[in-house]
Amino acid sequence: MARMKFICDAERCIECNGCVTACKAEHEVPWGVNRRRVVTLNDGLPGEKSISVACMHCSDAPCMAVCPVDCFYRTDEGVVLHDKDVCIGCGYCSYACPFGAPQFPTNGTFGLRGKMDKCTFCAGGPEKHGSEAEFEKYGSNRLSEGKLPACAEMCSTKALLGGDGDVVADIFRTRVLTRGKGSEVWGWGTAYGKPGEAKTPTGGRS
Questions:
Q1: Which of 123, 34, 116, 27 is nearest to 78 (CA)?
Q2: pTM above 0.85, yes or no
Q3: How many Å apart are CA 64 and CA 113, to the nearest integer?
Q4: Is 68 within the bounds of a domain?
Q5: CATH number reported for the structural domain that contains residue 64 in this entry
Q6: Measured between alpha carbons, how far is residue 83 from residues 10, 22, 149, 186 in Å?
Q7: Is residue 198 part of a domain?
Q8: Domain range holding 146?
Q9: What is the rounded distance in angstroms from the CA atom of residue 201 to the CA atom of residue 82?
Q10: Distance CA 98, CA 84 (A)
């Protein structure tokens, strides 16, 4: 069975935050929580890179290891989810996660602790798929509809890849092996021909 994974191609990410907006809109994420965010390294300096970060649905998830009430569980597709009815809001998972994925919703001036919230890989939660209770607690369950996560589908440069880990790895591996410099990072030379190359008219759309 497919194991779902995310990969973000730092060479393609343009820090547009489209993935963040798509996630917020798709799941009506609580105020103060960003299930996905874009992090920029060396901002304004040579070698600046941006990367989209969320729960990476680890095979050996530290959040699962430290949770004292075992509210985290892994689906058959390898997606790490949590049961908000079991969660006690202790915050251990927030400290353990290297990606800062589990977060407290922020309500009021100083914020109130409550049930933890995190990226679900658009796979919902333990409630019945497509139910109102599932959407209220966890957002849309796109995976049960045969769709990919909204953040990956909305990425304009296809920097963020989400889906079957083997397929995603193959796509990224092909990019790395064929990647050049400058415009070739994007593959524009492949799409439009390199300077000086004669193009053969096709007489129609490709």
A1: 123
A2: no
A3: 20
A4: yes
A5: 3.30.70.20
A6: 32, 23, 20, 40
A7: no
A8: 4-178
A9: 55
A10: 21
Residues 6+ apart with CB under 8 A from 43: none
Tokens of 106: 């922020």
Helix ranges (DSSP H) in the chain? 18-27, 62-66, 92-96, 132-138, 150-154, 165-178, 188-192
DSSP 3-state assignment of 53? strand
Torsions phi, psi for 41 (to 5 deg): -100, 145
Give the chain's domain count: 1
CA-wise closest residue to 118 among 57, 75, 59, 168: 57
The amino acid sitting at 179 is R
Q: How far is CA 192 from CA 14, 177, 181, 195, in A?
A: 21, 19, 15, 9
- Confirm if 152 and 143 have CB atoms less than 8 A apart: no
Phi, psi of 58 (to 5 degrees): -60, 145
pLDDT in tens, the chain (206 residues): 578 999 999 988 999 999 999 999 999 987 778 899 999 988 888 888 999 999 999 999 999 999 999 999 999 999 999 999 999 988 899 999 999 899 887 665 555 667 899 999 999 999 998 899 999 999 999 999 999 999 999 999 999 999 999 999 999 998 888 876 655 555 555 555 555 554 444 444 43
Query: Position of tokens 């058959």?
Result: 76
